[in-house]
Amino acid sequence: MQRLPDDDEPAPRPARSWTGMFRDAIRGVKIAVRGEVNFFIHMFIAVLAGVGGGILKISDNRWWCIFILCVTIVLTAELFNTAIEHLARAVTREQHPEVRDALDIASGAVLVASLGASCVGLLMIAWPLVKVLRH
């Protein structure tokens, strides 16, 4: 038996095309890049680390795969954090302990991802740099 929608329920959204979904996703990334300083900082540091790895001629593909994965995890965590911030502002502008906790937890996720990626970056760049400086 099919359930009839209540008057208060919004009408179901029509199915979106793949191009529409990609367009919306790209729009979301643009919003984060343009409006979130932290997202830009993470991207900037990732580029610096990548350039540093290139200058040191890191040729082990495993390091590059791990590096790309770490960058992806940090930027994804930052996107989720940004989404939660936007959602929290849409729900309420008042101070609420549960909203504050949710925002702090999301920020903590970015911190954990960033610290892990920093460790990988240091290992990826530090060992080759020590080898270069020894010779």
What brief labels describe this structure?
135 residues, Helix Hairpins, 79% helix, 0% strand, elongated, mainly alpha
Describe the structure.
There is one protein chain. The chain has 135 residues and is mainly α. The radius of gyration is 21 Å and the shape is elongated. The protein is built from four helices and no strands. It has a domain at 35-128: Helix Hairpins (Orthogonal Bundle), CATH 1.10.287. The protein is 79% helix and 0% strand. The mean pLDDT is 89.
Q: Secondary-structure blueprint of this entry?
A:
Elements: H1 18-35, H2 37-55, H3 61-91, H4 97-134
Helix pairs in contact: 2-3, 2-4, 3-4
Q: Which CATH class of the domain at 35-128 is shown?
A: Mainly Alpha
Tally of helical segments: 4
In the CATH hierarchy, the architecture of the domain at 35-128 is Orthogonal Bundle
Shape: elongated
Strand content: under 5%
Radius of gyration: 21 Å
Measured as a percent range, the helix fraction is: over 70%
| Structure classification | mainly alpha
Major sheet attributes: none
Mean pLDDT: 89
SSE sequence, one letter per element: HHHH
